[in-house]
User: What shape does this take?
Amino acid sequence: MNIHEKYISRCIELGKLGIGNTYPNPAVGSCIVYNNKIIGEGYTSSFGKNHAEINAINSVKIKSQLKESTLYVTLEPCSHHGKTPPCTNEIIKNKIPRVIIGIIDPHSKVSGNGIKKLKESGIKVTLGVLENKCKDHHKRFLTYINKKRPYIILKWAETNDGFIAPKTKDEIKPIWISNKYSRQLVHKWRSEEQCLIVGRKTISEDNPELTTRDWCGKNPTVVIISKDNNLNNNSNVLNSKAKKIIMSNEIIDFKKPIANQITKILYKRNIISAIVEGGAKTLKTFLNENIWDEIRIFKSPLNFKNGIKSPRINIKPKNRTLIVEDELLVIYNSN
Assistant: This one.
């Protein structure tokens, strides 16, 4: 790893601190280096507040050092006025001579204009350091801009013998397949995504809260697919603090591909990521329409012998992680 890669890696770690709080802005990370030492760091604040570069510049104690420093950032600095002034203006104003960038910003209002503006001001710009890692870090934002839909994560837990739920749920609700550590991890994931999608049957049978109660973070907006909007007003999710969007027949046409319609609606609402938690019918809807980017499966040692079969995926997992007795499989869509 060369010196530029070292500092862009640090920027990626900083950017991760903003995931879940910056939407619809990307979670950018930035650091400033003077004499081979980091003198400033920052990541994107909540929407409408400072971007990563500004937070990094503001954190520098001796501002005169900026004139001899290098600014590193995961994504091209913005050059347009939005909720905040352009980051390029502040970089130029502080006479930072070098900027190292992970990837170009594909947004039509930036898309190379930030780099152009910096170069025109005499700043030396290097692009493409740890490009693939920066693309992975910004996968939600890049999917939203390039595919004009949210980044879609499908999540479920299945038994060792391949069932996502028992045949009947007359006993205790809900029936837990994964262990408590896996469930806490799911709450962390919820805090990182902008919305969560479930079907009406999951609400009626499991009566979930769908919050981040076991993790510190924002509750995602809950999208419920309910054709006739016949939900029980006493259900936990309707009485939670999370925002709700009901996808009923007043909003979407249930005779047409449902996942495609939902993602178009979410795109128009500036929602850049979603985690689909079920049930089986809802998961298969996204799979059948091939509208997904990532699948996370908890494989439990439990056996049901019969029940509702989990979706079948003919793609090898890229990652396997043990969570006590559960195994977490992660699959990526190559399309």
User: Anything to note?
Assistant: The chain is about 30% helix and 25% strand. The radius of gyration is 22 Å. The longest strand covers residues 151-158. The first helix runs from residue 3 to 16.
